[in-house]
Amino acid sequence: MGKIQAAITAVNAWAPDSRLTNDDLAKTLDTSDEWISSRTGIKERRILTDKNLGTSDMAANAIKGLFAKTKLSADDIDCLICATATPDVVFPSTACAIADKTNIQNAFCFDVMAACSGFLYSLVTAAKYIETGTCKKVLVVGADKMSAILDYADRRTCVLFGDGAGVVLLEPSTEGYGIIDSILKCDGRGRHYLHMKAGGSVKPASHETVENKEHFVYQDGHTVFKYATKNMADVTADVMARNHLTADDIAWLVPHQANKRIIEATAKRVGLDEKKITVNINKYGNTTNASIPLCLWEWEKQLKRDDNLILSAFGAGFTWGSIYMKWGYSTP
Ligand code: UT7
Questions:
Q1: At 299, is the secondary structure helix, strand, or coil?
Q2: Is the pTM of this model over 0.70?
Q3: Which residue out of 30, 39, 261, 263 has the highest number of ligand 1 atoms within 8 Å of its CB and is therefore the one to mutate?
Q4: Claim to verify: residue 158 and residue 191 sit in the same structural domain
């Protein structure tokens, strides 16, 4: 028997129906469809408009859809990891709320916080539970309600993000499928360039923090762009080189969707044709932890057994990383 690897055996996603287009934003902001689409590739994003719903509701919808698709039951799951930067509440974890809403009762559940790299960090963490034989069925969900932390009067940030959720099921494979290698990175010196200034233990919420709009996304876009472009390209090239892979060996690059120009820089660096890159930023904007599983879900029918995939991301922290995996199934 070959060594145990963690393979994705099912994918699903869920995004709200409500669409916020660039033209909608241009009605209230000094911006334009031309500026947003040429600088980012975004045309529209989805918004969870029901004020009573949060990140866990979108994640629960994605998981219920996955159960329906796979005939799996909630009792089969032995671990649930939720990657999110917009938890329902500070504590307990959003994973606990998701477990409640999906009736998952036989699993240990926790959140991973690595901003836009959170889905990759979570996949690698989940893989360890599979590889060691601790777990047989792990759900990794990436979900964010970015609209909850955006200032819709700030054109530098609100145009960039959208809401959504995606989930994958990881199971053991002894046939060489699944996660083969990964590189995860962090440089904490970058944490001030993309963050929320208040609401945690250092600066709890107060009248002053609300008045100063410190509960919204703050981003020095130019600096983040510079680091994102270099680091996402570097780590993608590194994971490929370490596994002796050339562009010809790669079926798909599945990048985090923050900016089409960052994605193109990564593809160019490793010599990948644009036909091999999953890009849906035009429809969803940057959904933070949901972007990679949303791509896997949308491209699922095109992914074939034995395809080599590279998943890459860069996000606040700074955090970034890349995963090399062999896809394990073809959809009839
Ligand atoms: O997923 C987590 C990681 N995040 C990222 O990777 C995002 C990285 N950053 C970016 O994608 C880009 O920096 C942005 C898309 C955020 C901005 O693009 P840019 O080409 O770096 O623009 P900029 O920030 O240098 O701004 C250029 C100009 C500024 O005007 P002035 O100061 O030159 O007069 C901005 O005020 O564009 C202005 N601007 C806008 N104009 C129209 C900024 N936002 C807008 C807007 N509409 N929405």
A1: helix
A2: yes
A3: 39
A4: no
